[in-house]
From TrEMBL, chain A:
Gene3D superfamilies: 1.10.287.130, Histidine kinase-like ATPase, C-terminal domain, PAS domain. SMART domains: HATPase_c, HisKA, PAS. This is histidine kinase. It comes from Phyllobacterium bourgognense. The keyword Transferase applies. Residues 174-386 form the Histidine kinase domain. One of its GO terms (molecular function) is protein kinase activator activity.
UniProtKB/TrEMBL annotation, chain B:
InterPro entries: AB_hydrolase_1 (IPR000073), AB_hydrolase_fold (IPR029058). This is Sigma-B regulation protein RsbQ. Residues 2-238 form the AB hydrolase-1 domain. Pfam families: Abhydrolase_6.
Length: 390, 243
């Protein structure tokens, strides 16, 4: 529209094809190229004339050819298209060009294949991010393996002599520290990824990874607290009332919601007094109680998370539905490495409730449980101003 | 009985097997790790050789009481069928091997078509692949067992393969050597060979034909490694003429 008063440029379809921001290939039914665009030639160095009559797999690495032949070609034939296929094209000077390809068959009314169109996008950056994600997953799995090893060691250590105890503690302390660094990298990596333009599902995946990171971080904290051997004399706390407690509790809930998106956690906070406490520790206590409720509570009943103050004390309760705790398990509930269901729960090492009760003691508080077929309720109470500094 | 090869599942036969339903009872299955198979049944040790897959095939045949049946195997399943037929000779009266290779790696005078380095590169590239990649990441990261639909929506509806298993299967496939098994086959055997098959060349197919005693080879007017998809009518006609 040359006369357009707003100066809208004209689109030339021939030029759009030739110089589109993506590569185009058209394949005959026998798979040979009969048309391609200038953009693709610019990327891979073969002229359009050189590409004529070649097969797509001649542009791939040997591995890519096998893959194309065994995976993508069947898919194309069966569903008439494929999307987002990762391929490496080999350029004329022998370099690899990572691309993503979409393809679509065009058939006549009788269902005979007329030709296949292939659209090609450069994907070097994206491939790198995906590589990173895979590497992160591998690292997370390795870290999980190490955590299990630490657990075995810690469990074995319980029955061994004092002499071994020190070595065990050192080992776990070092291991815990070493686990934190890769975990921090994973965490940073996921945050960086969220700043990129991600597809909806990639965003979901990264959010879930963040949930797992925070769960694992809690796990490491618990193991370290236990291993550092402070539990006999109570846990170390630094009490002050400089900051409000509620945001800490809210953050704990937010993190757990990310990790368990299908579960409902209802919060009722009414903290109207100053509380002298170690907020990080109270957060850890709450996280352990909620983690316990997520693991053992009925999935279809919301978890209640209550926190309130009166003139004298702070009370935090976590309530879940589901089967009651068996009476014989009650008196061992707060023992280290106790796990109610006896199964190998992926959620924890059986330290959560133990640590929670130790944190309660360090605040001159109490942690009690009441369990019935209606609900299981853990209640933590502490004075607003505990004596001493733990 | 139709057995699919590496890279896909029983959908591979969708254009072929229906043509036999009138005259035959057809049996289709997914190897462990592919399609609708139970991934939990995957056993690293058992499936570290093709014999593990051949045992499965024999097990299916025994379970169904197959006797003097016709086995149709594509790609690596050709050799899986060869092994099963040696193990339980009465199960299959005849074998149809589509694009078979008794050994993919070059070795001495034998030309399989691939070097060690090329196979390693293939195994590497499996990790970069999207279709499989999503299936790997889906259960591992999305995969709260209470939300299976999250994993589901990420994967393809056809040719689903678990990438970790696919990678192991690729290694087993491309490292396998069944040349010594060929002479032990007693069933009548038809070899269907395509032109320009980069995975199993005519030379490789001819080797299989020369070493299986009662065998014949038909060269199809089709290119590539999957004539069951690219030229299903020819495949059907050749099998019908043979059985």
């Amino acid at each position: 529209m040359p006369g357009d008063p707003h100066g809208t440029p004209t689109e030339d379809f021939e030029d759009l094809y030739e110089n589109a921001p993506c590569g185009y290939l058209s394949l005959r039914p026998d798979g040979r190229i009969f048309k391609s665009n200038a953009t693709l030639s610019g990327w891979i160095g073969f002229s359009q004339a050189e590409l004529l009559g070649k097969k797509l797999h001649e542009l791939l690495t040997i591995a890519g050819r096998v893959f194309y032949e065994t995976h993508f070609s069947p898919l194309l034939r069966m569903q008439g298209f494929f999307n987002e296929v990762a391929l490496d094209l080999v350029t004329k000077d022998g370099k690899k060009l990572p691309v993503l390809a979409n393809a679509m068959e065009r058939r006549d009314d009788a269902g005979n294949l007329l030709f296949t169109r292939v659209t090609i996008f450069q994907a070097a950056q994206r491939r790198r991010y995906e590589r990173n994600l895979v590497d992160l997953r591998t690292a997370a799995e390795a870290a999980k393996g190490e955590a299990i090893a630490a657990k075995v060691l810690a469990e074995a250590g319980l029955t061994e002599e004092q002499a071994v105890a020190e070595l065990r503690e050192q080992f776990i302390a070092v291991l815990g520290h070493d686990l934190r660094n890769p975990l921090a990298s994973i965490n940073a990596g996921t945050r960086m990824l969220l700043q990129e333009e991600l597809s909806d599902r990639a965003q979901k995946i990264v959010a879930l990874m963040q949930g797992s990171v925070s769960r694992m971080s809690d796990l490491i904290d618990n193991v370290l607290d236990f291993a550092q051997g402070r539990l006999g004399g109570g846990i170390t706390v630094a009490l002050d009332a400089r900051e409000p407690l509620e945001p800490v509790l809210q953050q704990v809930v937010d993190e757990l919601r990310v990790g368990s998106p299908s579960r409902l956690i209802e919060t009722h906070f009414k903290i109207t007094h100053k509380v002298y406490c170690d907020r990080g520790r109270i957060g850890q206590l709450a996280s352990n109680l909620l983690g316990n409720a997520l693991t053992h509570g009925a999935a279809d009943t919301p978890i209640q998370f209550l926190a309130s103050t009166t003139g004298e004390k702070l009370e935090i309760s976590v309530v879940n539905g589901g089967d009651p705790i068996p009476p014989e398990a009650m008196n061992r509930l707060f023992h280290p490495f106790f796990r109610g269901d006896g199964r190998d729960s992926p959620q924890g090492l059986g330290l959560g409730l133990h640590i929670a009760s130790e944190i309660a003691k360090a605040h001159d508080g109490t942690l009690v449980v009441a369990s019935s077929p209606v609900e299981t309720r853990f209640t933590f109470q502490m004075p607003l101003e505990p004596d001493g500094e733990g | 009985m139709f057995a699919h090869g590496f890279g896909c599942d029983q959908n591979m036969w969708r254009f072929v097997s229906p043509a036999f339903e009138d005259e035959f009872r057809t049996v289709l299955f997914d190897h462990v790790g592919a399609g609708g198979s139970d991934l939990a049944a995957y056993d690293t040790t058992k499936y570290s050789t093709l014999a593990g897959y051949a045992d499965d095939l024999a097990e299916i045949g025994i379970e169904l009481g197959l006797k003097d049946a016709v086995f149709v195997g594509h790609s690596v399943s050709s050799m899986i069928g060869v092994m099963a037929s040696i193990k339980v000779p009465e199960m299959f009266e005849s074998l149809v091997l589509v694009g078979p290779s008794a050994r993919y790696l070059d070795e001495g005078e034998y030309i399989g078509g691939f070097s060690h380095a090329q196979i390693e590169e293939l195994l590497e590239s499996l990790a970069d692949n999207h279709l499989g990649w999503s299936a790997a990441m889906a259960p591992a990261i999305m995969g709260n067992p209470d939300r299976p639909e999250l994993g589901e929506e990420l994967t393809n509806s056809f040719c689903r393969t678990d990438p970790d298993i696919a990678k192991a299967f690729a290694r087993v496939t491309f490292m396998s050597d069944n040349r010594d098994d060929l002479s032990k086959v007693t069933a009548r055997t038809l070899i269907l060979q395509c032109r320009e098959d980069i995975i199993a060349s005519e030379q490789v197919g001819a080797y299989v034909q020369q070493h299986i005693p009662k065998s014949e080879m038909v060269i199809l007017d089709a290119t590539g490694h999957c004539p069951n998809l690219s030229a299903p009518n020819e495949v059907v006609a050749a099998i019908k003429a043979f059985v």
